[in-house]
């Protein structure tokens, strides 16, 4: 650090981290001159979907029981897939935005960042005694290469599209789904429902654009985490494109009576959203570091 009006002697006692492209020969030179230096490749990061709902059960203790609603004069930085500012649960909650992935304005084309933001500060909807289930609409248009690097093998490929904690017993989880694909590229398409990592129900869509349904009874021994996957069998040497549209109806987790579903853990705080992963939930460590630096500076 130079003092005001000081001179630099062309040497550093230390320097902070940075991300960039470094030729191999320069990496060798750096490591030989600075033996304590730590040089890592720009690894890929990925958002977590499994069991996020279970991990947020701190809500019961933090705000409902103890009354900790969050500081009204503070904000929380969410480094994820962005945020949907038009979401009903987040109105008036988003006070900052920065995109390290692309040039899009404030948005969330994955949904994970919006979910996490709602877990933190969502205003909530529907009381515990509501007789109406929650309904989630899922849809997308994708290419095989959006998810997988390989395209030569003819085999089954699976993609998780939904996870929820369904804890109201003697209820139903209902899935109405359709998909569109070319039979010359994909010869079978499935929607699969897993409970506790075990397959419990499935539908095979052999006729594109036709609707199919899954009705799963939630018994006292089968309440908990459910995952929904799409699976398709790709023909050899094809790079298929496909779309799907699903409506999932279920009763979400209930902690105690009179709890409002989807109310945030710290619902008096605001959100500053940083987009560091793309629509498939993947990004780079360098963008995460840049977002952390921005959060620290602000």
Task: Spell out the blueprint of helices and strands.
Elements: H1 24-33, E1 44-46, H2 52-55, H3 59-65, E2 75-80, E3 94-99, H4 112-121, E4 134-143, E5 156-166, E6 171-181, E7 186-195, E8 198-205, E9 212-218, E10 224-234, E11 241-250, E12 270-275, E13 282-284, H5 285-297
Parallel strand pairs: 2-12, 3-12
Antiparallel strand pairs: 1-13, 4-11, 5-10, 6-9, 6-11, 7-8, 7-10
What would you say the CATH architecture of the largest domain is?
A: 3-Layer(aba) Sandwich
Radius of gyration: 23 Å
Q: Helix amount, in percent?
A: 10-25%
Spatial order of the strands forming the largest sheet: 4-11-6-9
Overall geometric form: globular
InterPro entries: Peptidase_S8/S53_dom, Peptidase_S8/S53_dom_sf, Peptidase_S8/S53_subtilisin, Peptidase_S8_Asp-AS
GO molecular function: serine-type endopeptidase activity
Keywords: Hydrolase
Protein name: Peptidase S8/S53 domain-containing protein
Describe the protein.
Keywords: Hydrolase. This is Peptidase S8/S53 domain-containing protein. It comes from marine sediment metagenome. It is globular, with a radius of gyration of 23 Å. Strand 7 and strand 8 form a beta hairpin. The chain is an alpha+beta fold. Helices cover 15% and strands 34% of the residues. It has 2 domains: 141 residues, 3-Layer(aba) Sandwich (Rossmann fold), CATH 3.40.50.200; 130 residues, Jelly Rolls, CATH 2.60.120. The protein has a 4-stranded antiparallel beta sheet, with no helix packed on it. A 4-stranded antiparallel beta sheet has the order 5-10-7-8. It contains 5 helices and 13 strands.
């Amino acid at each position: 650090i130079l003092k005001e009006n000081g001179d630099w002697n062309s040497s550093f006692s230390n320097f902070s981290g940075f991300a960039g492209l470094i030729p191999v020969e320069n990496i060798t030179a750096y490591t030989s001159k600075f033996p304590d230096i730590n040089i890592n490749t720009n690894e890929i990061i990925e958002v977590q979907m499994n069991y996020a709902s279970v991990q947020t059960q701190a809500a019961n203790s933090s705000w409902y029981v103890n009354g900790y609603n969050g500081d009204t004069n503070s904000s929380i930085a969410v480094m994820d897939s962005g945020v949907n500012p038009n979401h009903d649960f987040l109105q008036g909650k988003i006070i900052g935005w920065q995109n390290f992935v692309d040039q899009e304005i404030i948005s969330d084309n994955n949904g994970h960042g919006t979910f996490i933001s709602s877990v933190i500060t969502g205003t909530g909807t529907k009381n515990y005694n509501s007789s109406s289930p929650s309904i989630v609409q899922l849809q997308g248009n994708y290419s095989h290469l959006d998810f997988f690097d390989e395209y030569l093998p003819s085999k089954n490929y699976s993609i998780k599209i939904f996870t929820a904690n369904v804890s109201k017993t003697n209820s139903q989880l209902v899935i109405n789904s359709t998909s569109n694909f070319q039979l010359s590229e994909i010869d079978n398409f499935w929607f699969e429902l897993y409970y506790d990592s075990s397959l419990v129900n499935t539908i095979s869509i052999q006729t594109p654009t036709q609707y199919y349904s899954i009705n799963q009874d939630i018994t006292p021994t089968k309440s908990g985490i459910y995952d929904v996957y799409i699976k398709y069998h790709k023909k050899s040497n094809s790079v298929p494109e496909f779309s799907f549209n699903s409506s999932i109806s279920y009763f979400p987790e209930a902690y105690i009576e009179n709890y409002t579903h989807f109310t945030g853990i710290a619902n008096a705080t605001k959100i500053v959203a940083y987009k560091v992963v793309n629509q498939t939930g993947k990004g780079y460590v360098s963008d995460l570091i840049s977002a952390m630096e921005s959060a620290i500076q602000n």
